[in-house]
Amino acid sequence: MSDGAHSERPVSRIENFRNLSPAERIRKLGGISGLNQASQKMLSGGALPVELANGMIENVVGTFELPLGVATNFTINGRDYLVPMAVEEPSVVAAASYMARIARGCGGFHTSSTSPVMRAQIQVLSLKDPYGARQRLIEARDRLIEVANTRDRVLVELGGGCRDIEVHVFEHSPVGPMIVLHLLVDVRDAMGANTVNTMAEMVAPLVEEISRGEVRLRILSNLADLRLARARVELGVDALATKEYSGERIATGIVEACALAIVDPYRAATHNKGIMNGIDPLIVATGNDWRAIEAGAHAWAARTGRYTSLSNWERDSSGNLVGTLELPMAVGLVGGATKTHPAAQAALELLGVSSARELAEIAAALGLAQNMAALRALATEGIQRGHMALHARNIAIVAGASGTQIDEVAARLAADHDVRVDRAREILAELSGRGDD
Ligand code: MEV
């Protein structure tokens, strides 16, 4: 089936998708994924009424929109996904789709994840015997877990809840000895911040009693190192070849580019930003907390004490290029904007995910695809060629182009390597002179 029309699961390879208008694209998605008219409308813009926004945050004056694109070609664990991405940066959606297309021909992305376990931290001060306090808390593990689980019975019924504790001692801190009790909580399909913060507050009095100290902070950790998502891709070098560069040259270039990010934090920051270029747009489109994801990713990248690459690129014994990515991914399907924002709901419907773990794994695959796109370009022609071609469309619009003029003006700007608004205006004037407007 070429476009998967009305199949149970959408086929993510859609011929000619980029050449359609936004309205045609959304109709096409409707046909392929079974997304109903109401959800199609939600993804088309203006989904968030001001009244709803007013209930979400404070001092609301309006809403703020971003372009919403759909990355195509993704196959993850043998299943196709159409991936919604809300992002302002040109070339991100195109790059992800392009790399997913190459990956698709090589078996697609393979992903896995841990159970959705979040950490809540309870800080205890004014301790005379921090090590004694630590052991008393460990001895009271079962009681602490029981108290933590008294509040959220629904979570426990769903198979989640507090699973374990850890107690970390900081003998020397600027305010004297301190211990930090961690609650390790399986939050199932929630992002989990509210759940674990509530639990931490619930157990705090008991922690104070047992430790004989004073509890201060009771809050989740965004270093969600027990809630990891992983993605892997294996690419035959022939699949990587372009007209200008051999697959061997590209594979070697990607491995060398990654090596710089592994050894040098200055490069790692940019390398990881490229990964987040893929992940954040999905997080935003599904109404999740992108600051939490960013905080977790960068803290994880620095977990050894030296900030480094989140991904790895290497060659296997057959010469295939193997890319892997592993990072914390605290995303939810229930609660917060995920539930209240109508476009986020429609985006999740388009994705067709049934668990937060599935969403987390798609995010990891998207990050890896984006990373591969950036490294491929950087290791060969440089990033600006492709970027400028797409940036030219923005410049054409700023200069006043509309409809078919946009692509025509953009193509000429890019061909002349002169992507400026005043040049775009000149081209537009020429087109008008030709009667093309
Ligand atoms: C630009 O938004 C992202 C890149 O800088 C990522 C990278 O350098 O790997 C292209």
What does this structure look like?
The protein is of the alpha+beta class. It is 49% helix and 18% strand. The protein contains 18 helices and ten strands. The strands form three sheets. It has a four-stranded antiparallel sheet. Strand 9 and strand 10 form a beta hairpin. Helix 10 packs across helix 11. The longest helix has 24 residues, at 356-379. The chain is globular, with a radius of gyration of 25 Å. Bound molecules: (R)-mevalonate (MEV).
Features:
10 strands, hydroxymethylglutaryl-CoA reductase (NADH) activity, binds (R)-mevalonate, four-stranded antiparallel sheet, about 425 residues, HMG_CoA_Rdtase_sub-bd_dom_sf, hydroxymethylglutaryl-CoA reductase (NADPH) activity, 3-hydroxy-3-methylglutaryl coenzyme A reductase, 18 helices, alpha+beta
Q: Sheet bearing the most strands, described?
A: 4 strands, antiparallel
Helicity, in percent?
A: 40-55%
Strand order of the largest sheet: 3-8-10-9
Radius of gyration: 25 Å
What proportion of the residues form beta strands (DSSP E)? Answer: 15-25%
- Counting helices, strands and paired strands, the structural category is alpha+beta
Extended strand count? 10
Following the backbone from N to C, one meets helices and strands in this order, namely: HHHEEHEEHHHEEHEEHHHHEEHHHHHH
Question: Secondary structure elements and their pairing?
Answer:
Blueprint: H1 22-33, H2 37-43, H3 50-56, E1 68-76, E2 79-86, H4 92-104, E3 110-113, E4 117-125, H5 130-139, H6 141-148, H7 153-157, E5 161-170, E6 178-186, H8 193-211, E7 214-221, E8 228-235, H9 237-240, H10 247-263, H11 265-285, H12 290-301, E9 311-315, E10 321-328, H13 336-340, H14 342-351, H15 356-379, H16 384-398, H17 404-415, H18 421-433
Antiparallel strand pairs: 1-2, 3-8, 4-6, 4-7, 5-6, 8-10, 9-10
Protein name: 3-hydroxy-3-methylglutaryl coenzyme A reductase
EC number: 1.1.1.88
Pathway: Metabolic intermediate metabolism; (R)-mevalonate degradation; (S)-3-hydroxy-3-methylglutaryl-CoA from (R)-mevalonate: step 1/1
